[in-house]
Design a protein that fits this description.
The protein is α/β, with parallel strands linked by helices. 64% of the residues lie in helices and 13% in strands. Strand 4 (76-80), helix 4 and strand 5 form a beta-alpha-beta unit. Helix 3 packs parallel to helix 4 (85-93) and helix 5 crosses helix 7. The longest helix has 47 residues, at 106-152.
């Protein structure tokens, strides 16, 4: 089920955005009156998209976006009457993917949603690639340290690497796990 969260202290605006999201293809559309309600709703329901006003009682939209992003990354579109640099900088730092200046119509909201979802997918893909590269680098460093430990025991570099590979295959373990075990034994 594709869930979206609409946050605004104006019920009429929430309804307008909810109708646009329904026509966009969202099955379930949640509503909140302020930023604090938005944070709670996002934690409970894990929406695929949040469309939120900036200026609201209790907690503003930028602060709510920041709190939502810390719990779970999700594309966020801000609706704002404020186009001042400070608000835009805060929104960018909070992880907001797109914004739309009020007043707006459905023809303007749909591209903002598309842009937010596109940026979110790009950012998520980059985060995954970085995590994989960091894991690969960590494994490579461990394997190099384990090879060095085996070389100190009298093996040549190719022999040490082959021993790591063979042990990994024989034990059905990753090179990282074998390297960690060798380093533990070498201590």
């Amino acid at each position: 089920m594709k869930t979206a969260l609409v946050v605004d202290d104006e019920p009429l605006l929430r309804r307008q955005v909810a109708e646009t999201l329904a026509s966009y293809g969202f099955d379930k559309i949640l509503e909140a009156n302020d930023g604090a309600e938005a944070v709670a709703a996002a934690e409970q329901n894990r929406p695929m998209l949040v469309v939120m006003d900036v200026t609201m009682p209790v907690m503003d939209g930028v602060t709510a976006a920041e709190k939502i992003g810390k719990v779970r990354s999700t594309p966020i579109v801000l609706l704002t009457g404020n186009t001042d640099r400070e608000t835009l900088d805060r929104a960018r730092e909070a992880g907001v993917m797109s914004y739309l200046v009020k007043p707006f119509n459905e023809d303007q909201l749909v591209p903002a949603i598309d842009l937010a979802i596109h940026h979110f997918i790009q950012a998520s893909t980059l985060r995954e690639e970085v995590a994989k590269l960091e894991e690969t680098l960590e494994t490579r460093k461990l394997v190099e340290r384990a090879k060095a430990a085996l070389i100190r025991q009298g093996l040549s570099e190719p022999e040490a690497y082959r021993k790591l590979q063979k042990t990994a295959m024989d034990k059905r373990r990753s090179m990282k796990e074998v390297a960690e075990a060798i380093l533990l034994m070498a201590e």
